[in-house]
Backbone:
């Protein structure tokens, strides 16, 4: 009897061989752990006998195992092969019944099992808690049920399989027809377990249709009990990946606001620290473009499992596990489960015809089981082609796919025609997760008749979805636990191969109708305010679908607004490359559709130019904006609001091109016009005021820029909100002016708070956040806080390169700062390498005559000085001095700074007279331009004292130096790094900082 106490092993005391199907690995691990805590040796043996071995022989082989044999009974144990109940009953009677004491069993299923399994006397572990399940296990094996010693009881072990991890989300339903892949699962598990801290990343890669997603899902269910957190994230699009990862924040119990960026930052930080959970598993499904998301893959004590068609993940700290098609035995076993009416021979022939591709096997075997068609007829149809009256499939796909899909679609059309309509409609969204809730939220009158009935009739909807799921055409996303009218299927998942095939061929009338429906659904879902960071997740969900719905060919004004808002979102969120691609296509399409001078085209050109300007294409944007300005001025007059907006863009282009006087003049009259038309407090007026401040700063008029930016910041705090992205941008601008005026403490205080809020609201990788952090790093640097500056400079540059690319204007700005910091405080070789790259980058982007080129060449000359190449540095600085004066004027702070450096090299090469004359001139001009106590003026005064000392005019040198040191102590503090350096008679230098435009 099951409850009778007896020795554990007949052939080996205290040894148990645990026989289990791979599907039930989590149960096996838990049972083994509970027994081993009590001193029992457990040998785990996965049950998977070859199909050609008779079941009786396989059971006899099992009896060769050590100790008592504990069989883990489940549906899956008896399906391996698969083998029928009759075969099992015969084998159990012949092998197990004569020697029942060698066997014990526990059952983890409520399904009907072969009748002869009663010989096992199985203990039932279903529908009970962990303590009761353990008690029943021990009783069945005749082991004591006394409480364990505290040391054994408290040690960590596998979670009870009936308990899900504490955090669980996004995981697809388990595929109960999952077959084989044992070696792949083992490879993935071993690779993750053997990885070092922070390196637990495995990528399952292979062609479409081989079952990468199903393999990842099976991994989760088999090994999920070892994790406290399991989170599944669609990773085919960066924006959607960020959104779904951010949704983990409340599940982890993280205290964050509703801001998107704050939640994303908190999640990544939590996973990195392993707090509150160190055992986490993150699955990134469909990550086919590593360069899009690799920088967002979390690190820490947990594991990351990726599915991808792209093996380039190996270049991003990931182990690769290649997923091939099924081997033939797996194909046959799978088909027999999917289509029990087929024989093994028929299954083998079908597998060969369909080339062992799991997706196609799943879909074909599913409907073939319900069909009267024989395998022979089906294979003949595959080989001979299809009639013209069946649904066609594109010739772009392999022959087997073409014909198999044609047959399947016709089957669906004949049984549930609504399912074909739904499938075709979904093909006008992007492949992957299809937000069908957007369709269900549309007014019934806006849907075609056949779709209106489908969307508004829960029974018809469920019937269509059930049919598609039955044939593995779609799957419901994980939050849909049941198919009923309350769940209604907010989103379904459509494999990219299915998506391509369905989209390729359909009646033109359906194509036009379905395209229009999806366009209107997307337009209705437009959040409407792309400047509001709280609405960015909505735009992240919408933007991937624009291309597939051919929105650029629509004449609907609502769809036009959607496109413009999505472009604005992409600009503000830093998705520049994707925005430029969409903008370029839109410019061409709308120009042909609406005409070059249509008002919407001018709206489009403004948004497109913003994106191009963000990546440094100032010449290209100037051409676009100048055409718009000229046309709108001629057609509507200079006071027209659209003309003023285009002119604002043109002024920004002029700033980018280094034509600062022109930009200032234009910015001034734009602001005056906005004030007259809209008043002081309109957001457009404040934007114009912000832009004028930037022009003033680039002209070196820092005090005027500071005052204007102060007023803009105060107004935006009142008109918008403290956390609005434009308010935060004004904080960065105002702090920049404070820093450039030497008010380092004030700037650092403001930026410390602003950086924290930027990370929360915008996200830590947003370009505006990076600008804020960069400015904070410069504050630390100017204040002598080298450690903080080093950390921030390095982090900002690394993230800029990852997120924006090495040639992005912001990245080059960050690199310039890293270079001059490394020159003084880190690695001169690193400084030189970065500097050479920055100079060449600016030459390529802006041309030889741009002030940024002159400035960064001047920085490079200081590196050459430090490595002993004095003559080279001297000649380069003399060229830079001329070039900068020509570009921005003799009295511009940048020219004065270049002169300070040039004077130092004149001294080094033996020309102290001209060095002293130059610094004397600089002091005079800097005092007039910036004031006596501005940091640059003080730098020039200390440098002039050194030059006078070089002329042996010590009396004047001491007087100039003493006055300058006193002013430094008064302005910056007696212990400030600049004051201390001047007192030590270290000759100062000046660093050129490329500015925001």
Residues:
């Amino acid at each position: 009897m099951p409850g009778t106490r007896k020795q554990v092993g007949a052939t080996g005391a205290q040894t148990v061989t645990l026989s289990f199907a791979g599907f039930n690995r989590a149960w096996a691990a838990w049972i083994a752990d509970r027994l081993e805590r009590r001193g029992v040796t457990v040998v785990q043996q996965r049950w998977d006998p070859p199909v050609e071995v008779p079941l009786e022989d396989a059971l006899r082989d099992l009896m060769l195992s050590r100790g008592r044999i504990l069989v883990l009974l489940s549906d899956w144990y008896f399906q391996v092969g698969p083998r029928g109940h009759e075969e099992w009953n015969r084998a159990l009677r012949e092998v197990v019944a004569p020697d029942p004491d060698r066997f014990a069993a526990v059952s983890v299923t409520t399904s009907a099992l072969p009748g002869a399994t009663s010989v096992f006397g199985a203990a039932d572990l279903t529908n009970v808690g962990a303590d009761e399940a353990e008690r029943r296990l021990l009783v069945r094996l005749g082991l004591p049920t006394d409480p364990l010693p505290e040391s054994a009881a408290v040690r960590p072990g596998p979670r009870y399989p009936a308990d899900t991890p504490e955090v669980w989300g996004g995981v697809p339903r388990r595929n109960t027809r999952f077959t084989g892949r044992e070696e792949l699962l083992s490879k993935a598990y071993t690779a993750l377990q053997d990885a070092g801290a922070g390196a637990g990343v495995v990528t399952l890669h292979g062609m479409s249709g081989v079952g990468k997603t199903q393999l990842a899902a099976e991994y989760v269910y088999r090994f999920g009990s070892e994790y406290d957190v399991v989170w599944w994230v669609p990773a085919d699009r960066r924006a959607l990946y960020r959104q779904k990862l951010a949704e983990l924040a409340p599940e982890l119990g993280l205290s964050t606001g509703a801001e998107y960026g704050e939640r994303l930052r908190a999640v990544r930080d939590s996973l990195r620290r392993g707090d509150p959970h160190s055992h986490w598993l993150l699955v990134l499904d469909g990550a086919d473009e590593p360069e899009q998301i690799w920088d967002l893959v979390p690190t820490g004590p947990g594991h990351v499992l990726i599915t991808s068609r792209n093996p380039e993940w190996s270049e991003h700290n990931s182990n690769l596990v290649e997923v091939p098609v099924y081997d033939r035995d797996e194909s046959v076993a799978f088909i027999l489960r999917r289509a029990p009416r087929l024989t093994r021979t028929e299954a083998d022939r079908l597998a060969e015809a369909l080339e062992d591709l799991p997706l196609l096997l799943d879909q074909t075997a599913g409907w073939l089981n319900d069909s009267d068609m024989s395998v022979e007829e089906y294979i003949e149809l595959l080989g001979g082609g299809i009639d013209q009256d069946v649904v066609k499939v594109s010739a772009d796909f392999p022959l087997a796919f073409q014909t198999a899909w044609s047959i399947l679609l016709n089957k669906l059309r004949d049984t549930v025609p609504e399912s074909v309509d739904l499938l075709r409609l979904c093909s006008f969204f992007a492949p992957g997760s299809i937000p069908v809730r957007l369709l269900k939220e549309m007014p019934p009158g806006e849907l075609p008749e056949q779709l209106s009935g489908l969307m508004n009739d829960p029974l018809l909807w469920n019937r269509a979805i059930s049919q598609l799921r039955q044939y593995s055409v779609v799957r419901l996303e994980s939050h849909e636990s049941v198919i009923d009218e309350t769940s209604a299927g907010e989103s379904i998942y459509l494999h990219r191969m299915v998506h391509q095939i369905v989209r390729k061929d359909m009646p033109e009338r359906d194509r036009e109708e379905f395209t229009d429906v999806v366009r209107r659904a997307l337009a209705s879902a437009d959040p409407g305010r792309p400047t509001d960071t709280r609405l960015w997740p909505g735009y992240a969900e919408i933007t991937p679908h624009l291309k597939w719905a051919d929105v650029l060919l629509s004449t609907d004004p609502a769809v036009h607004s959607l496109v413009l808002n999505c472009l604005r979102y992409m600009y503000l969120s830093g998705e520049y490359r994707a925005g430029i691609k969409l903008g370029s296509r839109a410019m061409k399409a709308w120009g042909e559709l609406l005409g070059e001078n249509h008002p919407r085209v001018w709206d489009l050109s403004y948004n497109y130019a913003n994106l191009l300007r963000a990546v440094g294409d100032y010449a290209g944007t100037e051409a676009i904006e100048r055409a718009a300005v000229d046309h709108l001025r001629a057609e509507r007059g200079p006071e027209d609001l659209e003309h003023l907006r285009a002119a604002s863009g043109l002024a920004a282009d002029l700033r980018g091109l280094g034509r600062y006087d022109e930009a200032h003049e234009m910015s001034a009259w734009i602001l005056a016009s906005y004030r007259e038309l809209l008043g002081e407090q309109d957001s457009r007026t404040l934007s114009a005021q912000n832009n004028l401040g930037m022009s003033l700063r680039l002209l070196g008029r820092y005090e005027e820029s500071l005052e204007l930016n102060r007023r803009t910041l105060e107004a935006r705090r009142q008109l918008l909100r403290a956390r609005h992205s434009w308010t935060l941008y004004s904080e960065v601008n105002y702090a920049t002016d404070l820093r450039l005026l030497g008010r380092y403490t004030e700037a650092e205080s403001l930026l410390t708070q602003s950086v924290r809020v930027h990370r929360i609201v915008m996200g830590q990788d947003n370009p505006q956040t990076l600008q804020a952090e960069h400015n904070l790093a410069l504050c630390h640097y100017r204040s002598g806080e080298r450690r903080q500056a080093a950390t921030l400079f390095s982090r900002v540059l690394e993230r800029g390169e990852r997120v924006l690319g090495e040639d992005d204007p912001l990245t080059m700005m960050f690199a310039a700062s890293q270079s001059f910091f490394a020159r003084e405080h880190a690695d001169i070789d690193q400084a030189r390498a970065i500097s050479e790259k920055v100079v060449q980058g600016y030459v390529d982007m802006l041309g030889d005559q741009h002030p940024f080129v002159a400035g960064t060449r001047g920085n490079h000359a200081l590196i050459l000085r430090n490595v002993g190449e004095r003559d080279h540095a001297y000649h380069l600085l003399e060229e830079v001095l001329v070039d900068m004066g020509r570009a921005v004027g003799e009295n511009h702070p940048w020219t004065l700074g270049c002169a300070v450096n040039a004077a130092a090299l004149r001294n080094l090469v033996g020309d102290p007279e001209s060095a002293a004359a130059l610094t004397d001139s600089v002091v005079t001009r800097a005092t007039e331009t910036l004031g006596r106590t501005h940091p640059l003026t003080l730098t020039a005064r200390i440098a002039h004292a050194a030059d006078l000392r070089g002329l042996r005019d010590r009396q004047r040198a001491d007087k100039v130096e003493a006055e300058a040191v006193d002013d430094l102590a008064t302005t910056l503090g007696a212990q400030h790094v600049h004051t201390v350096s001047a007192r030590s008679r270290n000759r100062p230098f000046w660093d050129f900082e490329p500015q925001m435009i």
Notes: The chain is about 60% helix and 5% strand. The first helix runs from residue 25 to 36. The chain has a mean pLDDT of 87. The two ends are 85 Å apart (CA to CA).
